[in-house]
């Protein structure tokens, strides 16, 4: 039992109406950054300062923030790869079937790292590869290649023989491009899903039911003559909104429930359920991969934007994870979705809208979850034995609502090579 007097005092350095309207609706009081605050919704740049040794200040028990100090272990593309590789090694030591290899010695469930990229490239001379800067978002700096000479030229232009440009100090990751994406109306799309993590140890995470699909404005073609046309290949709204065919009413977006209905009617209910089980499986495994290295500060929670692509065999692939998913509204529906996302997030992160108490670490009751559902609760999974199943021979994962989602396929955790 706890009694906390007074109103929550809030600060934000992200001036978005979906945030501010939510704070005001609760009757919270806005204060300046240098005043006493209880809740700070901050940018990833600010979180660095809050937890830096030089400028950092200790947070008190009545203060919470919306990022974990080293969220980049999951949200920087190169670090995510590193953590997944380490996780895979640990699973291999345990003899887990999740570290199984195929007849060619490649990992089935978790994508392998190819140290000898050139050798891999030559084995697949007709394949396309996608290069992404590790620390950028919204499609910036991305390009596709299908010849080794292109990467050599890029490397020379960057004045380096490795995948790091000395001039910009920008690291890149390269991954095999999914050139058989599932198309709807001939167009490529990806999924933006929201996942809230309230604690990493024990891991407790929630999936938001109202995700959406982002469509390209131009029909997809694997033709090499269109490799430079980002309207064909990249679903980022920041890119697509500049296209001639961009629709400002629906913003090239579909709800996940629409996608589900479409897939159930065209592919069947069973394979659709399996696809979503595998997406949940991917997300849980990516969070488990970073949980041991994440600074599980009790003052922190985080809402991540997961980007998933589905290929034409209905196999999901994790593209990346965003620490600050966009809160800009591109359409009226978008504004409603993001307002509700923040509302439901705050209901879990700040119980009863009262002044936070970081010593209080109970699971919120089901009635406050709104559009969130429990994706994985490590404490619950361990107590009912289903966590053994997660790593066990049956290949099952504790999915949404504590169900065990049968993993009969071979979802791949990440496309990064």
TrEMBL record:
Principal localisation: cytoplasm
Keywords: ATP-binding, Cell projection, Cilium, Cytoplasm, Cytoskeleton, Ligase, Microtubule, Nucleotide-binding
Matches recorded under Gene3D superfamilies: ATP-grasp fold, B domain
Cellular component per GO, a single term: microtubule
GO biological process: microtubule cytoskeleton organization
Region (Disordered): 381-417
Record keyword Nucleus present: no
Any one GO MF annotation of this record: tubulin-glutamic acid ligase activity
Catalytic activity field: (L-glutamyl)(n)-gamma-L-glutamyl-L-glutamyl-[protein] + L-glutamate + ATP = (L-glutamyl)(n+1)-gamma-L-glutamyl-L-glutamyl-[protein] + ADP + phosphate + H(+)
Record-linked InterPro entries: TTL/TTLL_fam
Subcellular location: Cytoplasm, Cytoskeleton, Cilium basal body
Subunit comment: Part of the neuronal tubulin polyglutamylase complex which contains TPGS1, TPGS2, TTLL1, LRRC49 and NICN1. Interacts with PCM1, CSTPP1 and LRRC49.
Family according to the record: Belongs to the tubulin polyglutamylase family.
Protein name in the entry: Polyglutamylase complex subunit TTLL1
Natural source organism: Acanthisitta chloris
């Amino acid at each position: 039992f706890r009694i906390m007097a007074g109103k929550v005092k809030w600060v934000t350095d992200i001036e978005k109406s979906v945030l501010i309207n939510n704070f005001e609706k609760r009757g919270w009081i806005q204060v300046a950054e240098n005043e006493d605050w209880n809740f700070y919704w901050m940018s990833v740049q600010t979180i660095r300062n809050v937890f830096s040794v030089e400028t950092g200040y200790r947070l008190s028990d009545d203060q919470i923030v919306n990022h974990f100090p080293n969220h980049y272990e999951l949200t920087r593309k190169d670090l995510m790869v590193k953590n997944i590789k380490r996780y895979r090694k640990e699973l291999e030591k345990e003899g887990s079937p999740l570290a199984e290899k195929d007849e060619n010695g490649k990992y089935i469930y978790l994508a392998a790292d190819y140290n000898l990229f050139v050798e891999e490239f030559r084995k697949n001379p007709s394949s396309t590869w996608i290069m992404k800067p590790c620390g950028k978002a919204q499609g910036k700096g991305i390009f596709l290649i299908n010849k080794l000479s292109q990467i050599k030229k890029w490397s020379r232009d960057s004045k380096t023989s490795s995948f790091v440009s000395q001039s910009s100090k920008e690291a890149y990751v390269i991954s095999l491009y999914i050139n058989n994406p599932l198309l709807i109306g001939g167009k490529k799309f990806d999924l933006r899903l929201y996942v809230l993590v309230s604690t990493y140890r024990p891991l407790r995470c929630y999936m938001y039911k109202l995700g959406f699909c982002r469509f390209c404005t131009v029909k997809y073609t694997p033709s090499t003559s269109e490799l430079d046309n980002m309207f064909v290949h990249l679903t980022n709204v920041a890119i697509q909104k500049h296209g001639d065919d961009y629709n400002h009413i629906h913003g090239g977006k579909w709800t996940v429930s629409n996608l589900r209905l479409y897939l159930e009617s065209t592919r069947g209910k069973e394979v659709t359920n399996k696809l979503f089980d595998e997406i949940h499986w991917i997300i849980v495994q990516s969070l488990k991969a970073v949980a041991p290295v994440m600074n599980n500060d009790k003052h922190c929670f985080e809402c991540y934007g997961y980007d998933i692509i589905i290929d034409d065999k209905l196999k999901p692939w994790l593209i990346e994870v965003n620490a600050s998913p966009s809160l800009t509204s591109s359409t009226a529906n978008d504004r409603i979705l993001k307002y509700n996302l923040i509302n439901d997030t705050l209901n879990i992160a700040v119980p009863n809208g009262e002044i936070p108490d970081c010593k209080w670490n109970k699971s919120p009751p089901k009635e406050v979850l709104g559009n969130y559902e429990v994706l994985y609760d490590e404490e619950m999974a361990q107590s009912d034995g289903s966590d053994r199943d997660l790593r066990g021979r049956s290949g099952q994962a504790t999915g949404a609502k504590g169900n065990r989602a049968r993993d009969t396929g071979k979802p791949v955790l990440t496309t990064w090579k």
